[in-house]
Write a structure and sequence with these properties.
Arc Repressor Mutant, subunit A
Length: 80
């Protein structure tokens, strides 16, 4: 998938990946998704944000988790 809504420029937000050249980083969008489980509230607070922005931010973030093994503390393991 082409991530055409993710932009990065050294002169904006210290080169962090942003949404459509806005001052809204991918990291911030992921944080907002955790803070606003109701998307309607999220869109009210950030009207410039669109559904496709969220989808591409999630895809971009998940691409950094590929092929990495993350050790979890034993206290977080669950018994099935």
């Amino acid at each position: 998938m082409k991530l055409d809504r993710i932009t990065s420029h050294p002169s904006k937000m210290n080169g962090q990946p942003c949404i459509r050249n806005l001052r809204l980083t991918v990291r911030r969008v992921i944080d907002l998704l955790a803070t606003y489980p109701n998307r309607e509230e999220l869109y009210q607070e950030f009207p410039e944000l669109e559904e496709e922005d969220i989808q591409q931010a999630l895809i971009f973030a998940s691409s950094y988790l590929d092929d990495r093994i993350i050790e979890l503390a034993k206290s977080y393991e669950t018994v099935a």
